[in-house]
Amino acid sequence: MPRDLPIGNGSLLVNFDADYNLRDIYFPFVGAENHAVGHPFRFGVWADGQFRWMGRDWKKTLDYDGNTLVTKVVAENQDLGLRLVCYDAVDFHENLLVRKVRVENLRKDIREVKLFWHFDFHLYGNEVGDTALYDPRGKCVIHYKDMRYFLIGGSTEETSGIDEYATGRHRIRLKVRTVSPF
């Protein structure tokens, strides 16, 4: 299935769909091991007691930043009164996906905003045996199975690391693998 925003470095290929959900993570062989298998890794925003996953209720433009392989996604949600300017890149030398989100408040009052990422790994293309753990020293979540490890971390201008997360049994009573706010 075609994807709207692919970025990669030859060993790591990441694809986003039209709703700006991460859909494919190929590593270490592009086209061979898809660790998402098309299951969406969702991105959500909480503000003023309201929560919205990135999707059809967001007005979005998906593009690349100039003549680069860095994505530039502008997403606006009138209900939340927010505009997000998002950049995604896969490092040229290292197998790293780097994401930057700038939040613009479209209202006059000062507000608290939290960003959430939901990861639905299917390591080696199969969800059986996938494991997630929180590392308090690194303040990160690590997803792993056999020889594949994916570290999920983050930072803001004030702090670094994940301070809220959830892991659970996959696809049981709507529990999720990992939800990480920043």
Euclidean distance between termini CA atoms: 31 Å
Strand pairing plus helix content: what structural class? mainly beta
CATH class of the domain at 5-46 and 59-127 and 169-181: Mainly Beta
Low-pLDDT regions: none
Strand content: 35-45%
Helical segment tally?
A: 0
Mean pLDDT over the full residue set: 91
Strand order of the largest sheet: 5-4-10-14
**Order of H and E elements:** EEEEEEEEEEEEEE
Please give a quick description of this structure.
With 182 residues, the protein is mostly beta strands. It has strands at 5-8, 13-16, 22-26, 43-47, 50-53, 59-64, 71-77, 82-90, 97-105, 113-119, 131-135, 140-145, 148-152, 178-181.
Explain what you see.
- The chain has 182 residues and is mainly beta.
- It has a domain at 5-46 and 59-127 and 169-181: Beta-galactosidase, Chain A, domain 5 (Distorted Sandwich), CATH 2.70.98.10.
- 0% of the residues lie in helices and 44% in strands.
- The chain has no helices and 14 strands.
- It has strands at residues 5-8, 13-16, 22-26, 43-47, 50-53, 59-64, 71-77, 82-90, 97-105, 113-119, 131-135, 140-145, 148-152, 178-181.
- The strands form 4 sheets. It has a 4-stranded antiparallel β-sheet with strand order 5-4-10-14, with no helix packed on it. A 4-stranded antiparallel β-sheet has the order 6-7-8-9, with no helix packed on it.
- It starts with a strand and ends with a strand.
- The model has no long low-confidence stretch (mean pLDDT 91).
Summary tags:
Beta-galactosidase, Chain A, domain 5; mainly beta; 14 strands; single chain; globular; four-stranded antiparallel beta sheet
